Amino acid sequence: MEKSVSDAIAYRRSTRVYKPIDIDTEKVKQCIQNAALAPNSSNLQLWEFYHVTDSDKLKAISKACFNQNAAKTANQMLVIVTRKDLWKQRAKANISFLEAAFGKTQLTEKLQKRKQQAINYYKKIIPTIYWDFLGIFGFIKYVIFQLVGLFRPIYRQTRLSDMRIVAHKSAALAAENFMLGMAAIGYDTCPMEGSDTLMIRRILNLPHGAEINMVIGCGIRDDSGIYGPRFRVPFEAVYFKI
């Protein structure tokens, strides 16, 4: 029986040692499908998921993760990759979806307006934000937007570095979906940032525009893999009611 959301959150721990027990590849794949349902910036879905089950690839990626226990003992791994470079293709995919979804029936004036606003967003706003060349136009846009922002609210994250952050934030949301989904079915995970990302890109034969968001070890927890009780700073220290 799957755990409730609250139970899955409470159960999930970063597990650094796994038992030598196989986990069901199809169940892990279903959790990855849940990851792909995560909220993300402008629904561009600038991510890819590499589900690693091959023993040789697991060993290679473990080495790239410095053979830390969470990698070395993992039964499977998920490598989450950001693809900011695919923004044009993903914008076109959204436009195609909108055309199909709104093209089935005669639209009211309100729906026609909503459809056009959405299409204009992907045809005009997204290119304005994402298009750049060597960071030059991103900096120019940043300066212009800051000046406009002196007079009215405006979106200010327009540089290459800003858009990288946006892509990685979306990928992190997907990672959390995945880990909670795994926890719900009694599987364990550990997100790892400590890795040689260039080596992992080569192992997975990723294109130039791909970036490693995180590597997640997967398996069944060994009790020794939970390094002590969970610690969080007092909730009152981080909660502010406005």
Number of strands: 4
Principal-axes shape call: globular
CATH topology (fold) name of the domain at 5-85 and 162-222: NADH Oxidase
Number of helices, where a helix is a run of at least 4 consecutive DSSP H or I residues: 9
CATH architecture of the domain at 5-85 and 162-222: 3-Layer(aba) Sandwich
Roughly what percent helix? 40-55%
Give the C-level CATH assignment of the domain at 5-85 and 162-222.
Answer: Alpha Beta
Structural class: alpha+beta
Quaternary assembly: single chain
Task: Describe this structure as you would to a colleague.
The chain is an alpha+beta fold. It has a domain at 5-85 and 162-222: NADH Oxidase (3-Layer(aba) Sandwich), CATH 3.40.109.10. 48% of the residues lie in helices and 11% in strands. The protein has helices at residues 5-11, 25-35, 55-64, 69-72, 87-102, 109-130, 136-148, 160-184, 197-203; strands at residues 47-52, 76-82, 188-192, 211-219. A 4-stranded antiparallel beta sheet has the order 1-2-4-3, with helices on both faces. Helix 1 (5-11) crosses helix 8 and helix 2 (25-35) packs across helix 8 (160-184). It is globular, with a radius of gyration of 21 Å. It starts with a helix and ends in a 23-residue tail after the last strand.
